[in-house]
C-alpha cells in the first residue's frame, strides 16, 4: 500500500489461513514506532509492540496444532511454536527487504521497515517513475516469498515430516506460499493492487486511473475477506472446531477487512493529494494582511482588517517592519466584549526565521517548509524581503482536504 508520499506497504498474512498486513505528507513516526532491531542496507528495521500480540496468538494456535501432530512434546510445543512465529516473521522481513533493495536500486529512498500486528511495512519515500518500475517494485516481494516457500519445501524433504524440524519447515513452506498468494490479490494496499495499478497506468498513461482501479478492487477485496474468510473456514470444519475458533476467524477477518479497506481508501486519497500538490501555490493561498502596532486594541485591528478586506493582522514596529503575527486561534478565544480592551501584541507570535516563507514556494517545497516550523500563521515575503501577505495553515488544510475528497 502507499501513503501520501508514495510509501510502499507490503501486507503479510499470518499462518493458519488468516491473512494479514502492511500520512498527509510527513515523516511519520520515527523510532517511537517500535524497537529498533538493526539497519540492513542502511534501512532501520523496527518491531512494533503489536507484533508481540500476533506472535503470542501464533504461538497459541500453532502450539495447539502441535499437540495433535506431536503430542509427545507436551508443554515444549509452545517453545517450538514461538520459534515458528519468529522464523515466520524473519520470512516477512526477507519479503520486505526485497521491496527495499529494488527501491534502493531505483533511488526511491526507504525510510524504514516495520514488523507489526499483521505483517510488514516497507516505507518507500517516493513513487516509481514508470509503470514497469512500479510493477517490479510490487512483484518482487511475493516472488521472494515463493522462493522462500520453495526453499523450505526442498529442506523439508531432507528430514522426517513427523519430526519437529519437519513440522516447522512444512509450516514455513505453507505460510510463505500463503503470503505470496495473498499479496498477489489485485487490490490496494496489497502488492497485487500495486501491480494492478501499474498495469492500468501503463494502458491508460494515467497513474490516477491505475490508483482508482486498484482502490476499488481493494474495497471489493475487503468485503470478500470479511464474508468469505469465515465461510471458507467453516467449510473446512471436520467437526473439531469450537465456538472460540469461529470467533477468532470472524475477528481476524474483520480486522483484516478493515485494514484492507482503509489502505485502499488511503491509497486513493494519497494519490489525489500528490496530484494536487503542484497546484498548491503560496501566492494564491496567502491572505492580505493589515499592519498594526502591538498596542492596537484587538477590536480596532479587526475593524481595520474588515475595512481593508484583509484576512490577517500583522504586528509591525514604529518603522513599519513586521515583528509578529496575530494568531487566529487566539483571536477566536477572546470574547467579543473584551476585544476593545485586549492589545494585539498579547495575541501575537514573534516572527522566528522559520515563520518567513518565500512567496514563490509551492507543492512539496511548501509542505516541507510548513513541517520544519509548525505554526498557525506564516509571513509570506517577496524576494526583496517585503511582506506579501500571511498564510493561515487552515487554508492549506482546507485546500488539501478538498483535493483528497475529489472536489
Q: Strand sequence of the main sheet, in spatial order?
A: 1-2-3-4
Helix content estimate: 40-55%
Strand content: 5-15%
Derived from helix and strand composition plus strand pairing, the structural class reads alpha/beta
From the alpha carbons, calculate the radius of gyration and give it in angstroms: 27 Å
Number of strands: 11
Distance between the termini: 23 Å
Helix-strand pattern, N to C? EEHHEEHHHHHHEHEEHEEHEEH
Shape: elongated
Count up the helices.
Answer: 12
User: What are the low-pLDDT stretches, counting only 5+ consecutive residues below 50?
Assistant: 1-32
Give the averaged pLDDT, no decimals. 85
Main sheet specs: 4 strands, mixed
Give an overview in words.
GO terms for molecular function: peptidase activity. It is a multi-pass membrane protein. This is Zinc metalloprotease. The N terminus is likely disordered. The protein is of the alpha/beta class. Helices cover 53% and strands 13% of the residues.
Amino acid at each position: 500500500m502507499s501513503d501520501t508520499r508514495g510509501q510502499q506497504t507490503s501486507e503479510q498474512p499470518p499462518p493458519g489461513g488468516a491473512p494479514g498486513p502492511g500520512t498527509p505528507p510527513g515523516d511519520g513516526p520515527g523510532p517511537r514506532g517500535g524497537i529498533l532491531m538493526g539497519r540492513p542496507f542502511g534501512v532501520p528495521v523496527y518491531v512494533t509492540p503489536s507484533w508481540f500480540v500476533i506472535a503470542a496468538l501464533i504461538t497459541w494456535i500453532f502450539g495447539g496444532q502441535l499437540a495433535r501432530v506431536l503430542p509427545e512434546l507436551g508443554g515444549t510445543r509452545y517453545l517450538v511454536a514461538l520459534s515458528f512465529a519468529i522464523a515466520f516473521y524473519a520470512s516477512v522481513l526477507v519479503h520486505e527487504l526485497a521491496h527495499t533493495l529494488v527501491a534502493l536500486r531505483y533511488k526511491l529512498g526507504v525510510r524504514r521497515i516495520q514488523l507489526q500486528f499483521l505483517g510488514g511495512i516497507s516505507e518507500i519515500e517516493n513513487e516509481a517513475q514508470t509503470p514497469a518500475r512500479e510493477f517490479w517494485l510490487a512483484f518482487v516481494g511475493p516472488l521472494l516469498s515463493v522462493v522462500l516457500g520453495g526453499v523450505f519445501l526442498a529442506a523439508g524433504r531432507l528430514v522426517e515430516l513427523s519430526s519437529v524440524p519437519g513440522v516447522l519447515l512444512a509450516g514455513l513452506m505453507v505460510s510463505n506460499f500463503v503470503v505470496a498468494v495473498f499479496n498477489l490479490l489485485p487490490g490496494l494496499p496489497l502488492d497485487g493492487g500495486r501491480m494492478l495499478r501499474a498495469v492500468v497506468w501503463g494502458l491508460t498513461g494515467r497513474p490516477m486511473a491505475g490508483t482508482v482501479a486498484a482502490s476499488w478492487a481493494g474495497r471489493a477485496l475487503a468485503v470478500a475477506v470479511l464474508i468469505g474468510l469465515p465461510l471458507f473456514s467453516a467449510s473446512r470444519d471436520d467437526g473439531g472446531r469450537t465456538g472460540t475458533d469461529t470467533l477468532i476467524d470472524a475477528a481476524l477477518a474483520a480486522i483484516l477487512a478493515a485494514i484492507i479497506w482503509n489502505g485502499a481508501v488511503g491509497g486513493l486519497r494519497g494519490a489525489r493529494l500528490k496530484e494536487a500538490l503542484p497546484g498548491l501555490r503560496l501566492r494564491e493561498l496567502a491572505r492580505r494582511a493589515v499592519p498594526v502596532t502591538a498596542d492596537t486594541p484587538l477590536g480596532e485591528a479587526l475593524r481595520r482588517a474588515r475595512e481593508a478586506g484583509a484576512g490577517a493582522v500583522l504586528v509591525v514596529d514604529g518603522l513599519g517592519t513586521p515583528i509578529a503575527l496575530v494568531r487566529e486561534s487566539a483571536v477566536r478565544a477572546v470574547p467579543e466584549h473584551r476585544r476593545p480592551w485586549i492589545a494585539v501584541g498579547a495575541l501575537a507570535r514573534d516572527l522566528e526565521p522559520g515563520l518567513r516563507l518565500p512567496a514563490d514556494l509551492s507543492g512539496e517545497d511548501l509542505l516541507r517548509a510548513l513541517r520544519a516550523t509548525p505554526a498557525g500563521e506564516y509571513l509570506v515575503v517577496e524576494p526583496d524581503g517585503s511582506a506579501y501577505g500571511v498564510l493561515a495553515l487552515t487554508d492549506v488544510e482546507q485546500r488539501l482536504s478538498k483535493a483528497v475528497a475529489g472536489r
